[in-house]
Amino acid sequence: LTDSLATLVAELKACRLCRDAHRFGQPLPHEPRPILQIAPGARLLIASQAPGTRAHASGVPFTDASGDRLRQWLGLDHETFYDASRVAIVPMGHCFPGLDAKGGDLPPRRECALHWRERMLAGLNDLELVLVIGRYARDWHLPEWKGSGLTETVMAWRQVFSAPRRPKVVPLPHPSWRNNHWLRKHQWFEAEALPVIRAAVSEAVRPRPGSPNSR
Ligand code: SF4
């Protein structure tokens, strides 16, 4: 990590904002455990929602069934997925936000993106592709779609992906099992969108000559 990014990550790891000075809602019901994966030079950003119970326990993002499905969707093995020099994972909320009355994950803490996101992403200058997972990441990375349904945004993936911008952005549904019904209903996602997304991911994580991963 560069000194400035390392300092920022150290600050984040010590963050207690939602526990001590919570601006939005109740204090976090457990000790904060901020989770992310970041290194300068990463060319793929997974803009995710917030850690779930398993990632909260392991301290590593996507160590759960959602992660298994996401890796399968993207065609990435564990080694590549967890190679911070190639893949950054920066959620909208860095700590597990707790569970609602029905046992579902609460939304990411609003304090988090407001306080950390812009500065954290400023350390990623080589991004080629951003995978946007869920409504909160969609609202941040695709503000022109804010107010639209998430399905509407995902259905427009070709239009979003082909927009002339760098990094390119593509919206994904959440890989959670809670979305199985959505995936069954929208089979075009796996049949049509995923092959294109997988190819873009493969290009973004391809080792470059001279990089530690080049062979
Ligand atoms: S969720 Fe974000 S803002 Fe809240 S305590 Fe964790 S790192 Fe800090």
How would you portray this structure in words?
By secondary structure, the chain is an alpha/beta fold. It has helices spanning 3-13, 17-20, 53-58, 65-74, 78-81, 110-121, 134-141, 150-155, 157-162, 180-185, 188-205; strands at 44-47, 87-89, 129-133, 168-172. A four-stranded parallel beta sheet has the order 2-1-3-4, with helices on both faces. The two termini are 22 Å apart. The structure holds iron/sulfur cluster. The site of iron/sulfur cluster has 15 residues, from helix 2 and helix 6.
List the helices and strands and how they pair.
Layout: H1 3-13, H2 17-20, E1 44-47, H3 53-58, H4 65-74, H5 78-81, E2 87-89, H6 110-121, E3 129-133, H7 134-141, H8 150-155, H9 157-162, E4 168-172, H10 180-185, H11 188-205
Parallel strand pairs: 1-2, 1-3, 3-4
The structure holds iron/sulfur cluster.
Iron/sulfur cluster (SF4) binds near residues 16, 32, 109, 111 and 112.
